Amino acid sequence: MTSKPSASVSDITPGRGALRPARSWLRSDAPSLSLNGPWRFRLSPTASVARDFAAEGFDDHSWDSIPVPSHWVLQGDGAYGRPIYTNIQFPFPIDPPHVPDENPTGDYRRHFPLPSGWSQGSGVVLRFDGVESLFTVWVNGVEIGSASGSRLAHEFDVTGAVHPGDNVVAVRVHQWSAASYVEDQDQWWLPGIFRDVTLLLRPAGAIEDVWLRTGFDNGRGRLDPEVIAGPAAFPLTLRIPELGVEQVWNTAAEVKRLDIAGVEPWSAERPRLYDAAVSSAAEHITLRVGFRTVEIRGDQFLVNGRRVVFHGVNRHEAHPERGRVFDEAHARDDLARMKRFNVNAIRTSHYPPHPRLLDLADELGFWVVLECDLETHGFDTVGWTGNPSDDPAWREAYLDRVQRTVERDKNHPSIVIWSLGNEAGTGSNLAAMSAWVHARDAERPVHYEGDHTGDYTDIYSRMYASVAETEEIGAPGARSPLLDCTPAQSARQRAKPFLLCEYAHAMGNGPGALDRYEALVHTYPRLHGGFVWEWRDHGILATTPAGTPYYAYGGDFAEAVHDGNFVMDGMLLSDDAPTPSLHEYKAVVQPVRFAFDADTVAISNLRHSADTSDLRFRWRVEHDGNPVARGELKVPVVPAGGSERVQLPHIDVSPDAETWLTIDAVLTAATAWAPEGHVVASAQLDRSVRRPVPAVRTRKDWRPGDGTLTLGIAEFISGSLVRLAGRAVTGPRLELFRAPTDNDESPSDGVEGSDASTPGVANAELWRRAGLDRLTSRRLSVSHAADALCTVDRVSSANSATSVTVESVWSLEDGELELRVEIEPSRGWTAVWPRIGIRFDLPDGDAAVDGAEWFGLGPLESYPDSLRAARTSRFSSTIEDLTVDYGRPQESGHRSGLRRLTLTSGGTKVLRLDALPDAHGRRPGYTLSRHTPQQIAQARHAFELPEATTSHLIIDAAQHGLGSRACGPDVHPEFALRPQARTIRLRLTAG
Ligand code: GAL
């Protein structure tokens, strides 16, 4: 054994010794032995470690034990280093194909007994389903080979190296290698053997590979089999019992296409699968076959002849404790959750997932864009100089990656598009990958977003295009040149189907304007929807020194370079909790739509091919949120693409309460992903009679006063409110600040259509510069009238000449306490405002305000550009549940369209507020929280928030929209809150 540096970390070939061509990941009855479980493990700081560890007699007793599969940085409580999070940046010098000598290297060893009867006349294969990033394998001291391609399967022939009885397998894994340059995805760097290791017996007469290509046309299924097997495997039998198929092939030449009658098609909506088996005398392989035809016709992408609209998500493999280690139960729950939220498509960003995930996608029903393990984004930093994508030296590595991708997963009906990778610039190696895929699989289109000009891909794809730009792409008459395209290239791209492989960046609170994208899809058939970035946050479960658990993000592991919380950008929080954005998404993309007129509702079915026979239509009528009647609508079965108009039930309209009709389309029977009664789609109709808003009483008897008095339930000292309904209160004070969202913190792009106050500067920065987070006030006047108090304050901030005048009038009206606040900005304000609100602080005293009941929009938070999931009704919540625990604390909890709010303490009603609409009919929203916006803005994690002793109620006349600026468009001008005068009117009564 030598002690020269082990495997060539700078080698850009994809490894040596792995079996090629790659083949499908098949379910076989041939014996196999899982090598998952505890392995001996040693971590070295560099790649130059002696190789004698691989030898049979080597003593590894002093080593640790580590589970396989796992990532070593997530094991051993920091003993094996820590995860690193970067988006684009390389966490090592840009010196391709070299990596630093500081290269954590994990040595793994384990013994295994070769099962009896395995050695004679059979082959033995050792399969690794995922190792990050470069590894070398030895069996009984014999070097077998090495491989890179972290999220790809690699198989090695170890027939000659294993022997009866005890064997030793040793694996050396380097965290960094040349391959790291092409695996620069936006995610944690997580080294180790993180997917299964399996020993496979390959009997004589085994079937090497099977591909059952399928098609579907008018009730007839096409099966186009490809079998790779030696002569000894024949005769082979194909069976699909349910379809009466039993086909015997005596030689390879007899393997032929079959045409099968009476077949039901596979779709993401009705994922019909048939059990199939291909058997030789030696091996029995089972598959689940779905019949479907994928094609591009003109500028449309069709499955089984019908246009597909992707309501998709980008899915990474991420788990707070396991990282990218697959857990089937968790994955199934995750996919079932997607289905419940009307997600119908998955882009496997940015690498092939664990192969079982695709079985789940076939079974539960998703359109899948299967992406190759490839990203070289860090080269963007150096103007793409040296980008492997256009360097012939990397051609073989690129081809190896796409071959392993396609070959492993080619049997899955759910996969309808192959994607070459993500953000790898452009170049001939990508074109070569595409050519290979086209030659190997002529049916499925090739996608790669970076091919802006459409030189080698079949679909026009973009990420984060604004609504306006997306419309420019979809509209038939539009002519403006597309990104990076000449007019001719633009025309070529416009002739293809379009999809947004990423849009609606779901970082923190947001995104806004999902509904605008959705509307375009139903206007322009060339637009095929897209994939929200992204499904889940990638927070890693960690604990503070004081023992408080939290979800860590970039920078929490003292990384030299990192990208902070940019990895917390999912519609699901790290702990699987759906955020309000996921509810919004579900409502926006619901497959059934409702259009009301006087007495009828038109029910449209926007599904791909499924009719509505799986749905019932329940209705209910509420008066001020209280249910008064319910029933079921009789709706004929609506075919896909069809619409039926049906009579509404009789609605009993209340003279003195709001009357709302709600219709829910619910599942008639349980499915694999939801129980019976699960709501798929819903809509509301407002049937309220218009009721007059009490006029503002003008008073003529104002006189200067000292402001110390009692008005009904309110007590004032020197013009300031001190008690309400017997509870200590301070405020109301003008609140213009919100704890900036991740979108607020992103520099404005200043593009047309955005409300950029100052291009290149984040709105949050403008707010801080203007001092919105540190307002001070000066009382200008206090006056009294009969049963009334009026104060006028000038609110401004240090070193600022702009101000807001706030007039507060407290009065008794019809025996109730009314507060009317007039908010009047001075001239000179420029930036948008986050909110226009008034804040009451309610100290805990003997019993904290800890809950709310309200009639208005709910149940979840809503903002002007994210209102579709909200409905008008009565709701209640604890104060904690009003706020979403975003990965980084930020604005959360705003409930729009408030009519009535009751604050509670330990279940007892403390104070009731009725919100009157302003002169334009606009209603305020409210936020109830244990922390002020200023406190929230200071915290990087929830555990950094101070211990709360006060509850804070903010009544907002308006809030700024959310937008998607963290990666994408600003708040649309319609939802941008420019400085403006506003009125807030409340009636307050004791609980
Ligand atoms: C895209 C990229 C994703 C992710 C996203 C922002 O450019 O493809 O991987 O980084 O931006 O979260």
Automatic annotation (TrEMBL):
Residues 735-759 are annotated as: Disordered. SUPFAM superfamilies: (Trans)glycosidases, beta-Galactosidase/glucuronidase domain, Galactose mutarotase-like, Galactose-binding domain-like. GO terms for cellular component: beta-galactosidase complex. It is an enzyme of class 3 (hydrolase). It holds the Pfam family Glyco_hydro_2_N. Keywords: Glycosidase, Hydrolase. Its EC number is 3.2.1.23. PANTHER family: BETA-GALACTOSIDASE. Belongs to the glycosyl hydrolase 2 family. This is Beta-galactosidase. It comes from Streptomyces antioxidans. The lineage of its organism: Bacteria, Bacillati, Actinomycetota, Actinomycetes, Kitasatosporales.
